[in-house]
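Example record

One chain of 149 residues, shown exactly as stored in the release files.
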Amino acid sequence: MTTTYPISSLLHQKTSALWSVAPDSTVFDAIRLMAEKNIGALPVLAGGQLVGIFTERDYTRKVALMGKTSKETRVREVIAREILTVTPDDSVEDCMRLMTENRVRHLPVVEGVNVIGIISIGDLVNWIISTQNAAIEQMEQYIAGSVAV
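Predicted structure tokens for this chain:
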């Protein structure tokens, strides 16, 4: 099973909505938005530029476990400064490798300086399962003689 398909093919299947948060937003506002939208991470944008990513992991490790309060702590205080990103041309395989090597579950997708989406490990797994199911169905049809070659 090949995973060399570009991330752009996966993005086309996702909703076009991209939720984000500003660095000066409170952690409480960020986690409330994440809960409302049922998402696990938010790109952090300042003046339209990506300055970080806020995740559930940031909240649990850098706010809750450190005794900080989510209503007083700003997102900029807990996000990592190193931002891993991918482009629409990067492959599913490359993204999986990047996530695994860096132990992250979300990657912003950027085109130039613009964030055009965000992918999660769940998105990649679901995409691979769908692709594998389609390939299996095609092979079954070929074996049964119902696919023209």
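Notes: Helices lie at 7-11, 27-37, 56-64, 92-102, 121-144.
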